[in-house]
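Write out this protein's structure.
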Amino acid sequence: MQEILLALEDQLQTHETVTFEVLDPDVRSGLYAGERVEIEGEVFLYRSLRTWLELSELLGCRMRTPERTTEPFIRLSFEKLPQDSFHSKEVESKEEKYGESSLFFRIHKMEEAAFFYYYKEALENVNISKRKHILDLGVNRGDEFEVIRNMVDAETFASMKLAGIDHSESALFYANTQFPEANVRFLRHDINQLETLALGKFDLLISIGTLQSPGIDFKPFLMSLVQEHLSDDSALILGFPNSRWIGGEMVYGAKVPNYVMSEMGTLLADVMFTKKYLQQKKYRVTVTGKQYLFLTATKIGINSD
């Protein structure tokens, strides 16, 4: 792998696509990367398709669909990702950076298995069918609410009151077209000024990636949410991005200014602060996920049945 990595890095400096042949991972099952495989007297080192996919991502590429060639090989192509990312996109309106005409609006997180699986798991963990007052900060077009609506029966969903807050007028306009139900409302507002809305208290808070926005002072804001906007029998689902969206791909690894590499220090510091604070407030806390870390918290000692 050391030789392969160096060779691919060298080729990608001058080529947009690099194509090469490797041992077909399907020739054996149950092997680990690096195990030796003998085929017709020749010895190969085994590597799974997952290994090649991850290598492609690490090199800033997408891996095209493998092609069969002369047995026992397949042909792989690593193609550099175009750098069309909403993260660095210049916008005229700060409020519409995530609006309907933005690159971000093209992203459907719930269609990414690595996102949807852990979000659904988090909803199950908080016993979503028992939650009655739900607040989503940074709701955008309402994807998190759509999953809830699909997970519970119609009568249970109708018994809930859901409020979503965002600063994008166009995203909220779209969200309203997707949720005609009277028990779902969307508000355009600065989440730093929640107290001016007089929303009352909620038994579930959802926020995916929003609390880490530059305009939010994370620690005091989180503490004020818990103290002022959550009920005694409350739960939280917070998504901390450990990925970037580039060229149509959800690319693993948190990115911070002044670092070429992925750097997770700030991400982990926020997650650990949140976990410790909520534990002090008598919440049971779990952290799951990969491209997004999902922190799920439920009150200890409260009977939610």
